Amino acid sequence: MTATAGPGTASLPMYDLPEVRWATDALWAAVAARLAAAGIVAPPALSRGPTVHELWADPGLLLSQACGNPYVQTYRDRLRLVATPRYAAPGCNGPRYCSLLVVRADARGDGLADFRDAICAVNGWDSLSGWVALAAALPEPRFFRAALVTGAHADSVAAVAAGEADIAAIDCVTYALLQRHRPAATAGLRVIGRTAQAPGLPLVTRRDADDATVEALQAALRGVLADPALAEARAALLIEGIEILGEADYDAIPPQPVSTPPVFAPSRRSATAPAP
User: Fold this and answer.
1) Rg of the Cα trace of the chain?
2) CA-to-CA distance for 193 and 19, rounded, in angstroms?
3) Which pTM value belongs to this model?
């Protein structure tokens, strides 16, 4: 989501389920008010139009949240780290998180090794949680026989549940939000493992933002995340606080895989993934 033109732009697109947008908007309004009190003009509202790559490349960016892999691979010279949220979701450890390996409840297999030659659902090839972390856990590059590219973690969950794919790596925060707000979406699934821990999705600003702006953003975020009046909004988003990580922390993200499985495009939903 991006703010209206004028006092810079703001976007928080990474966990923007419709069910929790009221909470995201409430937190942003409180951040913007605190920034205004500090003398920084901030957009009053968030809109949800451009793609994430357009949001992160915006030269007027004031605040956004990025995926760790695109930040490291593409946007490090355009974005500056502000803070990393801490989430209260299974799989999180302070400012670090992981992906959950999700399969159907009736699937045969209790670990990743049991899904050789399966079809995996992938939200996007540049996603740390949906592909890069999963690829780093594979015993060999050509482990899966095909991949279904869904465009979103929620759609990967739906693809596994419907039998279009056999397994998916789902950001643990997204999965916890789906379990809370869309329990039917995860009811027929089970978790068989986790990927390695990685730095969480960072809050960022434009690269040329000065120290005073970054410090004001950090102070506003700390204030909002400690405000008792916003406890309900924070709980809806599973946010507990923030920590300040450095660029070296994000160097621990695995490298982008050089190969990907063949892309599979199903013609219909079925109980069993079709042959390649």
Assistant:
1) 19
2) 27
3) 0.91
Query: What CA–CA distance (Å, rounded) separates 16 from 154?
Result: 11
Residue 213: pLDDT over 90: yes
d(CA 246, CA 149): 32
DSSP secondary structure of the chain:
-BPPSSS-EE---TT--GGGHHHHHHHHHHHHHHHHHTT----SS-B--S-HHHHHH-TTEEEEE--HHHIIIIITTTEEEEEEEEE-STT-BTTEE-EEEEEETT-S-SSGGGGTTPEEEES-TT-IIIIIHHHHH-SSTT-SSEEEE-SSHHHHHHHHHHTS-SEEEEEHHHHHHHHHH-HHHHTTEEEEEE---EE-PPEEEETT--HHHHHHHHHHHHHHHH-GGGHHHHHHHTEEEEE---HHHHTTSPPPPS--PPB---SS--SSPPP-
Locate tokens 């079709």: which residue? 274
What is the overall mean pLDDT for the chain? 92
Q: How confident is the model at residue 77 (pLDDT cuts 50, 70, 90)?
A: very high
Q: Using a pLDDT cut of 70, give the percent of the chain over it.
A: 93
Tokens in use for 83?
Answer: 């803070």
CB atoms within 10 A of CB 250: 19
